[in-house]
Specification:
The complex is a heterodimer of chains A (about 130) and B (about 90). By secondary structure, chain A is mainly α. Helix content of chain A is about 75%, strand content about 0%. Chain A has one domain. Chain B has one domain: Helix Hairpins, CATH 1.10.287. Classes of the chains: A mainly alpha (about 130), B mainly alpha (about 90). The interface between A and B is large, with 59 and 54 residues.
Chain lengths: ~130, ~90
Amino acid sequence: MSSIEHAADLPAWAALAVAFFLVVGAGLTLIGTIGFVRLPTFYERIHAPTLGTSWGTGGVVMASMIFFTVLSTRPVVHEILIGIFVTVTTPVTLMLLARATLHRDRAEGNPDVPGEAPAQVLVEDGAATKAD
Amino acid sequence: MSHTILSWAMVFAQICLVLAMALAALRMARGPRAQDRVLALDTLYVNSMLLLMVFGIRTGKVIYFEASLVIGMLGFVATVALAKFLMRGEVIE
């Protein structure tokens, strides 16, 4: 059990707050990843890891901010960069990934996914009748 | 007392994040299709980023923060490129 010498002059309330945010963040990340392994279909699975990117990242970033701010007695907020970055990029990547998956499922004719948007369905129907 | 709690909280957080990385790796090895593997890679990136931040708190060094920022950016670019590849079959058109 390694002690934390560099945090010896951290006040008790700050140590407790850092511990709380660390446990909440890491625990929620673990719960999200367990869901990622256990859920049955991809469209359900894609929701689970966002627990790690929202509260997981938020908790660990908050713990780090409190720790370094209290320890160096000046505001240390550069961790918020990671929080902002993850918050902005996660929806972008997951929307792209979900659309790519939907595209692949439609291209394979998977019956479990909804078809194309109505306008495109009309065009395809017209093409089909012409071909018939 | 509170420092003991903090110390154990760090151990707990590290164990949780390592377990989460192992589960994501399991999904990447098992995942039935390519999109599962891409999502597992994204989860792995986020978890390793958080693990490095906990490492930074534990050692009190700021260098780990920069490493985790780089990992986050690389993870974003990698996942976007892979999703684009799954969608179109090529990354740059």
